[in-house]
Q: What sequence folds into this?
């Protein structure tokens, strides 16, 4: 008797949680759309002003700013950073859109979470490669060496480590979701086979 009452109660609890996830995801999707639009406009403005600055202000008047060569090297670096950031926000936008529609355990969501993890891993790798490449270019004489303060703006061990840990955790979540989805599909297939036999 208690089992018959607990099953509908459990189903009602699950549906309530799905509605809560959908409601949260609708708001999160709007936030991601706003962040993507703001990031896209900001990246275009930064790249435009970076090109104009390299053309019209090639040499810093006070000896503190970036030289023309440094600005030229900064443009692809900034483009890569903005590109990865926008790609992460776009994947989150798609993920929250799917969750808002009530589709939670789907192969599409697993792919989107995995892509977010891989993009975060790429972000972490860029966090290591950019300052190393900058220092190598300075050592080879292609660009003037930056002050230690500028170098520290690009790289810190704690932020780089946290970026790698974040990427690893997201990839772990995508793997767990993939295994869970496989088990769910397998259980549903067994249930269908049992129903056909009956």
A:
């Amino acid at each position: 008797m208690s089992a018959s009452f607990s099953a509908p109660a459990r189903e009602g609890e699950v549906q309530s949680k799905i509605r809560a996830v959908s409601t949260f995801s609708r708001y999160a999707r709007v936030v991601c759309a706003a962040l993507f639009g703001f990031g896209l406009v900001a990246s275009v403005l930064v790249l435009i002003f970076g090109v104009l600055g390299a053309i019209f202000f090639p040499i810093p008047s006070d000896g503190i700013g970036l030289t023309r060569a440094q600005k030229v090297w900064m443009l692809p670096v900034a483009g890569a950073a903005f590109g990865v950031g926008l790609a992460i926000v776009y994947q989150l936008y798609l993920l929250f859109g799917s969750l808002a529609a009530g589709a939670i355990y789907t192969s599409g969501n697993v792919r989107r979470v995995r892509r977010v993890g891989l993009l975060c891993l790429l972000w972490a790798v860029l966090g290591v490669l950019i300052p190393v490449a900058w220092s190598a270019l300075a050592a080879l004489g292609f660009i003037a060496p930056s002050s230690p303060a500028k170098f520290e703006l690009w790289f810190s061990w704690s932020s780089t480590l946290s970026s790698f840990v974040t990427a690893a955790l997201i990839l772990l979540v995508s793997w767990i979701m993939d295994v869970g989805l496989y088990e769910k599909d397998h259980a549903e297939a067994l249930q269908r086979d049992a129903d056909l036999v009956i």
About this structure: The chain has one domain: 2-197.
